[in-house]
Amino acid sequence: MASTIGHPQEIDKVAQSASVGYEKVDLVFEELDRILESRFFKKAGRSRQFLDYVVRHKLEGHAEQLKERTIGIEVFHRAPGYATGDDPVVRVQAGEVRRRLEQYYQSLPSPPAVRIELQPGSYSPNICWASDNTDSKPGLANHHSSPIPSRNSSFRLVAAVVMGACAAIAFTSGLSYLRHRTTESQSTGQAKFWAPAFSTSQPVLICLAKGVTYRPSLKLYRMYARSHPGAFQTEVERSNNPLPLKSDQPIVWGDMELYDEYGVAVGDVSAALDISAFLGRLDKPLQVRIGSDYSFEDLRESPAVMIGAYNNAWTMQLMSGLHFAFVDDPQRNLSIREQVPGGRVWRVKDDSSGAVVRDYGVVSRLLEPRTGQFTVILAGLGTNGTEAAAEFVSNESTLDPALGNMPRNWQTKNMQIVLETNVIHSVPGPPHVVAAYYW
């Protein structure tokens, strides 16, 4: 979808409100359209909305309105009084937009005539021209009230060059240090397992699924409150207490509402925290993505850790043709199946009360999957299996002994490991290897 602000009527409106030349406004709109239609933004809905909004307001001369709360309300539909400290959606999305802009400009064969940048600590974009000769760009850079900054200051140019050089040195030094840290521990199986993730400067994407989640509508809560005065009057009560309707209480589908902000599994969050803590100890940059906040293009740009099985469509897609796969057969219980004639099958074991006492998970280490990037999939039949898989790959004491039984050149191959964990009071025990395959 093209930008909504690049049409002639909008160009005329913006040029008049900002007191800038039509030519420059048109060039900025054209660049914005190219960015939004690029592979880095095309399927990233939130990033598109954020960038379109901040660029529009900058061009209209309303940069002072680009505050975190305002953007949260107008772009992400947060309540006017929402707590920005508890809900970092704007800060997170700003960082995501910066990353995507950097990738977009790095992919271009030559510098564009105009460049849109979003500096850290600011939600007001910079519009930068390829040339400092402002006379060739009439009506914009020379106007004292222009919302788009001029770049004809020698001091600013020198400062930018110096800052860029410092940043490059810092990045190179950091990368060298990271590689040094990794090389130091190359003797461990864990280091070899994760080595492909450290061979690139790109952050590791930790990808969690967000399942479809429904909640009772406000109408249903109010209906209950009529016979129970004072009940469920606040959002705190509604979010933290189940609605105790009688089992025979008739309701209609309209009494349920889809909640897009809910739906991350507890086990997946626990697994993500384990992996984040592990990578953090080694100073490896990472980014957490939830639900639809990542695309196939993102997975082609960075190494990734996919978390979850049946609630994660990417897991099911990437593992569908592998030796061990999760089977979603409506005629059977959910299972992990070895996809060969007479292959083994693993299913969750329950006790007489229905509580899970044994779960299974799979660790898949893929050097060149369909995405072309190093990918690790940590998934269980249940939430305990997923937690066990994350503990297995983030804990040297469990991973190294298991890898010691692999062929000497295992680190150059794809591999899958099936794990078993005994569950006591909903807490998974140490994971044990029950099967492995490499190719």
Given the C-alpha coordinates, what overall shape results?
Answer: flat
Overall tally of domains: 3
Identify low-pLDDT runs.
1-20, 132-185
One letter per element, helices H and strands E, the order comes to HHHHHEEHHEEHHEHEHEHEEEEEEHHEEE
The helix content, as a percent range, equals 25-40%
Biggest sheet architecture: 9 strands, mixed
Structural class: alpha+beta
Count of separate DSSP helical elements = 14
Our Rg estimate from Cα atoms comes to 26 Å
* Average pLDDT: 81
**What oligomerization state is this entry in?**
single chain
Distance between the termini: 42 Å
The count of DSSP E runs of length 2 or more, i.e. the number of strands, is 16
How would you describe this structure to a colleague?
The chain folds into three domains: 145 residues, no CATH class; 180 residues, no CATH class; 45 residues, no CATH class. It is 40% helix and 17% strand. The protein contains 14 helices and 16 strands. Helix 3 crosses helix 5, helix 10 packs parallel to helix 13 and helix 13 packs across helix 14. The longest helix has 31 residues. It is flat.
Question: SSE layout and pairings?
Answer:
Elements: H1 8-18, H2 22-37, H3 45-59, H4 68-74, H5 89-107, E1 114-117, E2 126-129, H6 154-184, H7 189-198, E3 204-208, E4 214-216, H8 218-227, H9 235-240, E5 256-258, H10 266-281, E6 286-290, H11 296-301, E7 304-307, H12 313-319, E8 324-327, E9 335-338, E10 345-346, E11 349-350, E12 356-366, E13 375-380, H13 383-394, H14 396-403, E14 415-424, E15 427-428, E16 432-438
Helix pairs in contact: 1-2, 3-5, 10-13, 13-14
